[in-house]
Amino acid sequence: MRTEGRAKRLPRAVRERQIMDAAIDVFSRLGFHAASMDEISDVAGISKPMLYAYLGSKEELFATCIRREATRMMEAIATGVEPDQEPDVQLWSGLRAFFGFVGENRASWQVLHRQASTQGGPFAVELSDMRGRAVSLVAALLTQSTKAPATTLEAESLAAALVGAGESLAEWWLDHPEEPAGVVAARLMNLVWMGFGDLVDGNVWHPPSRR
Amino acid sequence: MRTEGRAKRLPRAVRERQIMDAAIDVFSRLGFHAASMDEISDVAGISKPMLYAYLGSKEELFATCIRREATRMMEAIATGVEPDQEPDVQLWSGLRAFFGFVGENRASWQVLHRQASTQGGPFAVELSDMRGRAVSLVAALLTQSTKAPATTLEAESLAAALVGAGESLAEWWLDHPEEPAGVVAARLMNLVWMGFGDLVDGNVWHPPSRR
DNA sequence: CCTGGTACCTACTCGCGAGTAAGACTACTG
DNA sequence: CAGTAGTCTTACTCGCGAGTAGGTACCAGG
Q1: Residue B72 burial class via C-beta count within 10 angstroms: exposed 0-12, middle 13-18, buried 19 and up
Q2: Mean of the per-residue pLDDT values for chain B?
Q3: What distance in Å separates residue A47's CA from the closest CA in chain B?
Q4: Predicted confidence band at B45 (pLDDT cuts at 50, 70, 90)?
Q5: Counting beta carbons within 10 angstroms of the beta carbon of residue B8, is it exposed (0 to 12), middle (13 to 18) or buried (19 or more)?
Q6: How many CA atoms lie within 13 A of A33 on its CB side?
Q7: Nucleic strand C under 7 Å from the C-beta of A5
């Protein structure tokens, strides 16, 4: 990148998108602190002052990236889920949507998961906020579908565990990209819905036959 | 810290422990990059050159901390687990040991977990190695106890999900410290052993009556 | 062809933090 | 009461990276 002298003249909106894409790429590879504004501007194909003129400080840039990608991801999941179905089918469609997004947006996922969660800066707010929404969503699904009386605390902690399992499995998946998204999603579905107790006995969950 | 002028003269071994404790404290609060050697030496109650004289560079210091705490944790779990019992009981004792350790070593846990997900350092080796051992342990437990034929890949991914669920739940626990360790561990046990499918129907797992 | 506005640049400042040089204090050993 | 080994300090260097000052190229419309 950045071999030629001067960059082609482009409208601001387009440049901003390019910069954000470059920033996500660099942040995902190096992490927030190790990523330098010099490198981001380099990858984006422009000079540093442009960064500051358009996207503000490093923290602002990072927060903007987080917000954009978090929104994209939540929308992907919201679109994929089928709210009128049985609880297990809802969960299944949610998982499929989640792994689908991660598979097609690896860099975004890394920024969201790895970097944002570790930095104690002002963006931790953005991130734990989004994570909180995901947890609440699952917790609501549990509370609404369970027959046994369960405390809010209990539902929330289980939801946190499930979300963590999803994140961790997505992380594992990055190292084993040959597996299709559906297979990975199905494994997690079986784990959290059937449990090891059933799996050990050979009982598996599978989606209802296609409508 | 570091209000008086000169520090009391102490033997090297003792100083090293103090420094490591201070380092873990600072690393857990700020993370690797944001933590400065100045602050660590300050908290430890000594001056910076002592740090370098005893523990080497910042990266070496961090790696040493990781190694020490990771070893402590793995030992705590290995001590807690009961290898001759049924699979479910083995898992249960492992979970209890894990949450017990986290509850009593919050700072250590934060260093291990938060930094475990940041890639790019030479210490990532230490960490993913330890995490890998934990995953392998669980994977072995699964493979050995399951009747249905399962691929290595399948067992490993499920183990990764389980470990992630544990980590995430431990993280959640830090925000809800009023819950006892046993309760949190039991919730995770129920989730991964029984599954939501059973929990929704009111079926719960509980430990065998005390021998 | 000037006049402004917007995209874009080179070439700096400046603070922060990793790492060090060189020496001062303390305590034991003969 | 020297000598010396180990502890501990003040006071630096030095590079890296965030952020900026002060321009230059390019494209309107008059």
Answers
A1: middle
A2: 88
A3: 26
A4: very high
A5: exposed
A6: 16
A7: yes
Confidence of residue A14 (pLDDT cuts 50, 70, 90): very high
B20/B24 Cα distance (integer angstroms)? 6
**Residue of chain A nearest B113, judged by CA positions:** A118
Chain B residue with minimal CA distance to A111? B118
pTM comes to 0.89
pLDDT of residue A211: 44
Q: Cβ–Cβ of A164/B162 closer than 8 Å? A: no
**Of A69-78, A176-185, A191-200, B77-86, minimum mean pLDDT range:** A191-200
> Is the CB of A49 within 7 Å of strand D?
yes
With residue B163 as reference, give the H or E element that holds it: helix B152-174
Q: Which H or E element spans position B91?
A: helix B87-104
3-state SS of chain B: helix, strand, coil percent to 5? 70, 0, 30
A142/C18 CA-to-C1' distance in Å: 50
- Which of A20, A27, A18, A15 lies closest to A107 in space, CA to CA? A27
User: Would you place residue A121 in the very low, low, confident or very high pLDDT band (cuts 50, 70, 90)?
Assistant: low
